[in-house]
Design goal:
Layout (H helix, E strand, L loop, with lengths): L1 E7 L4 E11 L2 E12 L3 H8 L4 H20 L4 E6 L1 H5 L3 H11 L5 E2 L2 H10 L10 E6 L4 E7 L2 E8 L13 H14 L7 E5 L1 H9 L8 E2 L1 H12 L3 H6 L5 H4 L2 H15 L4 E2 L5 H19 L1
Parallel strand pairs: 1-4, 4-5, 6-9, 9-11
Antiparallel strand pairs: 1-2, 2-3, 6-7, 7-8, 10-11
Length: 296
């Protein structure tokens, strides 16, 4: 069984195609294709509230390319989800309708709560009875989820994202709202562990040179990496640190968002599992096609 997931974010758009096999009661997921295209829809939307004509044309071309790959791999089922940039764009639905009509690719524009739910599906193997704060920082929004005893007790989406923060135009009231949400739902005695998802925390974790099989990082180490990155110019982050151009600028504001959430929670540790929305989409696809197979 072949499955495809497309994550249309504010800073980049990702396609993953996975082959699922069953052998001797064991299910194996093998990645066949992964593409990340740096189309920054959020830069348009967070400034002028709509996707520009230039980026609209590029987006439609990219969806055509993704649809061709989905067809060439003979995918059995797929999901395409768009997050904050398209849901806040005045012409987001119009563009999604154009793609559906002209290309035959159905795009679901999801809200922050649904986005968080999908990402959470990929996190269950990391969650036990202890308290956890899940922090997912995207280009346009940050989703927070709080768990106790393997139950989600609170969840909220905030218009705080790495692309949105580039110009330091996030209102102080939004930052205060995020801190208030954390402080109201977490007590100091909880000694909460954070779980960080998103491309920027994965890169920060990689830059920290973690020990083999280690999947966690401290706020002190995140701050150290942030200060290290700030010591380079944007051009040097690309040429000396080998960061992608669309990562080299947003990684610093993203690190500030993670640190702000960890500080509000008084957390001393963050697990970085390297999963995201596309992994949650794969989970949904697998479950619904497993059911179809049983029904047949």
């Amino acid at each position: 069984m072949k499955l495809a997931a497309v994550d249309i974010g504010s800073n980049a758009i990702r396609l993953q195609i996975t082959n699922v096999t069953h052998y001797e009661d064991k299910t194996t997921f093998k990645k066949l294709e992964y593409l990340r295209f740096p189309l920054r829809l959020g830069m348009d939307v967070f400034h002028v509230q709509k996707i520009s004509d230039k980026n609209r044309r590029k987006f439609v071309k990219l969806m055509k390319a993704f649809k061709l790959l989905i067809d060439l791999y003979e995918v059995d089922d797929y999901m395409v989800c768009a997050t904050s940039a398209m849901r806040e764009s005045a012409n987001g639905k119009e563009i999604a309708d154009e793609v559906k009509q002209d290309i035959g690719l159905k795009i679901q524009i999801i809200d922050g709560n649904r986005e968080a739910e999908l990402i959470n599906l990929a996190l269950w193997s990391y969650i036990d009875e202890k308290p956890y704060l899940h922090i997912d920082v995207g280009g346009g929004s940050t989703e927070l989820n709080i768990y106790k005893n393997k139950q989600k007790i609170a969840s909220k989406s905030f218009k705080i994202g790495s692309v949105r923060a580039l110009d330091d135009n996030i209102p102080l009231s939004v930052w205060k709202s995020m801190n208030k949400f954390i402080e109201e739902n977490i007590t100091n005695k909880d000694k909460i562990t954070c779980i960080g998802t998103g491309g920027n925390i994965n890169k920060i974790f990689e830059l920290s040179n973690p020990a083999k099989n280690k999947r966690y990082i401290s706020p002190e180490k995140i701050k150290e990496i942030k200060e290290y990155l700030e010591s380079f110019s944007y051009e040097d982050r690309i040429n000396k640190l080998n960061l992608n151009p669309d990562r080299a600028d947003v990684i610093i504001p993203a690190s500030k968002i993670y640190l702000a959430a960890m500080t509000a929670a008084a957390s001393k540790k963050m697990i970085v599992p390297d999963v995201g929305l596309k992994d949650g989409l794969m989970n949904v696809l697998y479950e619904r096609n497993k059911i179809k197979k049983v029904v047949k």
